[in-house]
From TrEMBL:
Keywords: Methyltransferase, S-adenosyl-L-methionine, Transferase. GO terms for molecular function: methyltransferase activity. Residues 44-129 form the Methyltransferase domain. GO terms for biological process: methylation. The keyword S-adenosyl-L-methionine applies. The lineage of its organism: Bacteria, Bacillati, Actinomycetota, Actinomycetes, Streptosporangiales. PANTHER family: METHYLTRANSFERASE, UBIQUINONE BIOSYNTHESIS O-METHYLTRANSFERASE, MITOCHONDRIAL. It comes from Sphaerisporangium krabiense. The keyword Protease does not apply. It comes from the Bacteria. SUPFAM superfamilies: S-adenosyl-L-methionine-dependent methyltransferases. This is SAM-dependent methyltransferase.
């Protein structure tokens, strides 16, 4: 198993995400983490904004925002905020922002795509600005196992875990009321030396951990 895919009611994006399910997801503290890492009123570009879960929270905190996603179905769920449909790897908006956000663990992909994402961040961050990244916590790769838990009315069942060298592929079932979705996805771990090299490739430098307890969120600065 190594290709991301999904199934269930409604539109499924090319990477296996359900538009309907993502529209149901609550915020889980992400806007507050980002807000604390940038100046008041900082402009923010979110790459891979999906149905606007984080983007809307940042706008409510007073930030001018622009969201980018490849899925028109996802962007249709954010009619009240500025959005752009486009591929993150090749995005060229012709403007820069005080902060660029790459959340939802999208950085945990193969090295080529990871570097393309970071280059897009670099192209769109202002001099003196900040890139904010959420990665899969490094400990997850060793600890994830089949499990089940319910939060905010969403039952999440990790049904299968497959380890292939350093890569981890999981099959997750999501249940909300009488609706169910399945998402299969692969995560690539990023060692600290790999992260440093990827950032340098994109002309960025590591700044600091925003969540040092799990090393899920960090910032980078342009060089």
């Amino acid at each position: 198993m190594n290709a991301n895919h999904g199934s269930g009611p409604g539109e499924i994006t090319p990477d296996g995400c359900s538009v309907e399910f993502y529209d149901l997801l609550p915020v889980m503290g992400e806007p507050s983490i980002v807000h604390a890492a940038v100046p008041e009123g900082a402009s923010i570009l979110e790459l891979g904004c999906g149905a606007g879960r984080i983007l809307r929270g940042l706008a409510e905190l007073g930030h001018p925002v622009v969201g980018v996603d490849e899925s028109p179905g996802m962007l249709a769920r954010v009619p009240d905020l500025p959005t752009v449909r486009g591929r993150m790897e090749t995005l060229e908006l012709g403007r820069v922002f005080d902060a660029v956000l790459l959340a939802s663990t999208m950085i945990n992909t193969d090295a080529e795509q990871r570097r393309a994402f970071l280059e897009t961040c670099r192209r769109h961050v202002a001099p003196g600005g900040v890139v904010i990244v959420q990665q899969t916590p490094p400990s997850w790769f060793e600890t994830v196992e089949p499990s089940e838990h319910t939060h905010d009315g969403i039952r999440r069942v990790v049904r299968e875990v497959d380890r292939d060298g350093r890569l981890v592929t999981v099959v997750v079932d999501y249940h909300v009321g009488d609706r169910s979705w399945t998402h299969t996805f692969t995560r690539h771990p990023i060692a600290e030396d790999e992260l440093a090299a990827d950032l340098a490739f994109a002309k960025l430098r590591f700044d600091r951990w925003l969540t040092p307890e799990d090393r899920a969120w960090f910032t980078a600065r342009p060089v």
